[in-house]
Amino acid sequence: MPRVLLVLLLAIASPVQGGDPPAPPAMVDPVVEGRRLVGELKRRLTAALTEALRESPASAIGVCRTEAPAIARSLAAGGATVGRATRKPRNPANLAAGWQANALAHFERRLAGGAPLDGASWSKALPGGRTAYAEPLVIQPLCVTCHGPVDGMPAALRDALAERYPADRATGYAVGDLRGVAWAELPGPAGR
Fold first, then answer.
1. Residue whose C-alpha is closest to residue 45's, from 107, 79, 94, 99
2. Separation CA 171–CA 139 (nearest Å)
3. Which residues contact 96 (CB under 8 A, 6 or more apart)?
4. Where is average pLDDT lowest: 90-94, 120-124, 164-168, 186-190?
5. Fewer CB within 10 Å: C terminus or N terminus of the chain?
6. What are the tens digits of pLDDT across the range 145-190?
7. Edge-to-edge, what's the strand order for the sheet holding 122-126?
8. DSSP of 37-63, one letter per residue?
9. Measured between alpha carbons, how far is 74 from 70 in angstroms, rounded to an integer?
10. Do 183 and 125 touch, CB atoms closer than 8 A?
């Protein structure tokens, strides 16, 4: 084949100056992304609480009050929202309602039926093309410090809780109790 024809064929077959057109963004399954976001929320919150408890239980109150919402906001991207919800909130903004209450009821039924919560999750396609994802929040040993029986708390901790949360309903738990849910709401239907 003459060299000129070969060069011409290569020029025609070669991509345009910028290279191949970009591939469309990969579609991320919202349940997989929800699992990742909730896992990251739990991991970061546990690390922050563990560090704060080294200083004092009162420091841990500050983590749940300010750092937990900041962690949730830092994970919210691409239309996703992340948070925690419970039936017995310390902060009234964390009261489970709507689909979060439905997710919590799902885990309560599992627990009542003797099914383990370890590794459990819940998801649902929501109106408007969004997906809800939740995992149970189970009381761990470090949680009992601030969420256990009030009579077992140091006086300084009881006073700090009463001052910051006069309507606190988040005490009386034992290790293994279901505290609430960690949740994510994301764009896209479940099971795409």
1. 94
2. 11
3. 85, 86, 87, 103, 104, 180, 181
4. 186-190
5. N
6. 999 999 999 999 999 999 999 999 999 999 999 999 999 999 987 6
7. 81-85, 178-187, 130-138, 122-126
8. HHHHHHHHHHHHHHHHHHH-HHHHHHI
9. 6
10. no
